[in-house]
Amino acid sequence: FVEVYADEAILKAKELDAKRVGGAPMKKLHGVVIANKDVICYADHQVTASSGILKNFKSLYTATALQFLLDEDAIVIGNCNCDEFAMGSTNENSVYGPVLNPYDTTRVSGGSSGGSAVAVAAGLCIASLGSDTGGSIRQPASFCGIIGLKPSYGRVSRYGLMAYGSSFDQIGPFTNNIEDAALLLEVISGVDAYDATCSPKEVPNYSKELASTKK
Fold first, then answer.
1. Catalytic position from the list 37, 116, 131, 189
2. Which of 40, 97, 140, 173 has the greatest number of C-beta atoms within 10 Å?
3. Known catalytic membership, residue 136
4. Model pTM score
């Protein structure tokens, strides 16, 4: 983690507890603890792309994909280290230092979303968001033994994601299992007026359609 929103997360958890006790219907991600990559904007929170150039910069708005998680009552606990400006494949190139593999600290975590992958693999959160241009979710997920998904281009809004390669970038989830990945994809997908490259196609009910006889 680059930063942990400890007090904010506890306050949010207490609010959700009160809603549940009060009989309010629980949303899809009620109380799910989620971490965010340090290239995905969150209003009034630091976003630096793990670069000294943006030290102490706070975002003016929230990325659409992250907002969709917040709208479903997820608890975002902090932002995670990555290769600087998401340009790397080992997560060794960060102003904050390297992210090591949680199973063997003599090895790398993969990149560029190494922090987001390790946060899930080490049990620090239930799921996290990363970004993938040429493997930056898929590779660290593989290195850390978890699930990482790069959605098809246009399935998830890129609004609020610091661009690396705009015609390839996608925000996607890290999870411990396929079911959680399907649920997060279902939540973060959809049309966004702020991103003209978003697909207008209806979002499938991924979490309910996992069973398949197809090879």
1. 37
2. 140
3. yes
4. 0.95
